[in-house]
Specification:
- By secondary structure, the protein is of the alpha/beta class.
- It folds into 2 domains: about 20-150, 3-Layer(aba) Sandwich (Rossmann fold); about 150-290, Cytidine Deaminase, domain 2, CATH 3.40.140.
- It has helices at about 30-40, 75-80, 110-120, 125-135, 145, 165-185, 205-215, 250-255, 275-285, and strands spanning about 20-25, 45-50, 65, 85-90, 140, 155, 190-195, 195-200, 230, 245, 260-265, 270, 290.
- The strands form 3 sheets. Strands 6-13-11-9-7-8 form a 6-stranded mixed β-sheet, sandwiched between helices. Strands 3-2-1-4-5 form a 5-stranded parallel β-sheet, sandwiched between helices.
- Helix 3 (about 110-120) runs antiparallel to helix 4, helix 7 runs parallel beside helix 8 and helix 8 packs parallel to helix 9 (about 275-285).
- The longest helix has 19 residues, at about 165-185.
- The radius of gyration is 19 Å and the shape is elongated.
């Protein structure tokens, strides 16, 4: 079974039968998915990755457990014991498993060579390995957007403020930079100011990228410069079922602290966490939020 779904493939319909599990990392996305599933009458089973989930108490209303990355070999048995047929991979995983710490587990042994290769090839390779392992054992992996389609950011300007001509030049520059680092599996975001990219997202994530930009405002070539745009986009050949770029209220507030004029993301290929709230916050802070068309033209 092929586990790769590219950006050119249409989203598949997630079935409504069977129990859904959430493999929860950091950030707001896992809890938003859990709340959305519960609201639709489908109480999820939540597997919280130890050391990654920021607020484990938030998952108290749902059946849940904590799992170390090194215990991943027992995951299939746990999921099947809970009658899980579908899994959503959601949230950030900053740490990487320590292969030496994995307990000897017979079903896991064939996976170890694939895991070693995946760890060397970057985040996307690791995600595909995890997805392949689950689906090889009869558990379907679905994207967050398949479970909750309303999470996808629509195309067009979503706020009262619209991008100015200078902002559109920044969008073009940041988009080119974000696509370049995405092709190298480094990150999904870039910031451009004055028509050129000035900061790229690394393993530290978007929040830290924006903090770095805020720090750069007070010295060097950025001193006195106004505006700028954060752009987030999918990686070329992005696996749609995991790690789609996302923005939320925290992103908007970080962009404001960094002195940016707005945020642009790839429409229908980025998640808006609490989309209504983030638009209201952007309006209050005077930022624009834009869903870019597939051709990337702002």
């Amino acid at each position: 079974m092929s586990t790769k779904q590219t950006l050119d493939a249409p989203p598949r319909e997630a079935g409504s039968s069977g129990r859904v599990a959430i493999i929860a990392g950091g950030g707001a996305l896992p809890l938003e998915i859990a709340s959305g599933l519960a609201a639709s009458g489908r109480k999820p089973f939540v597997v919280m990755v130890r050391g990654e989930v920021e607020d484990p108490a938030g998952f108290a209303p749902y059946p849940n457990l904590l799992l170390d990355l090194e215990q991943f070999g027992s995951l299939v048995g746990l999921l099947k014991g809970e009658s899980v047929t579908q899994v959503v991979l959601a949230g950030n995983i900053a740490r990487r498993p320590k292969l030496r710490s994995m307990r000897p587990f017979l079903p896991l042994l064939p996976l170890i060579p694939r895991a070693v290769a995946a760890l060397a090839s970057g985040d996307d390779g690791l995600l595909r390995t995890v997805i392949g392992y689950l689906e090889d054992h009869g558990i379907k992996v679905v994207g967050a957007h398949e479970i909750l389609p309303d999470l996808l950011v629509p195309q067009g300007v979503l706020t009262r403020k619209k991008p100015a001509s200078a902002d559109r030049k920044d969008i073009e520059a940041a988009l080119a930079a974000a696509r370049a680092i995405g092709a190298l599996d480094i990150g999904q975001a870039a910031v451009a100011i004055g028509g050129r990219a000035i900061a790229l997202e690394g393993i530290e994530g978007t929040d830290s990228l924006l903090e770095r930009v805020a720090g750069l405002r007070s010295h060097g070539r950025l001193a006195g410069r106004k505006g700028g745009v954060l752009v987030k986009c999918s990686k070329p050949g992005q696996e749609l079922r995991a790690d789609l770029p996302g923005i939320g209220v925290r992103t908007v507030e970080g962009a404001h602290r960094a002195g940016l004029s707005g945020i642009a993301v790839e429409a229908e290929r980025a998640l808006g966490l609490g989309l209504k709230d983030l638009i209201e916050r952007a309006d209050a802070l005077g930022l624009f939020v834009l869903g870019l068309p597939r051709d990337g033209k702002p």
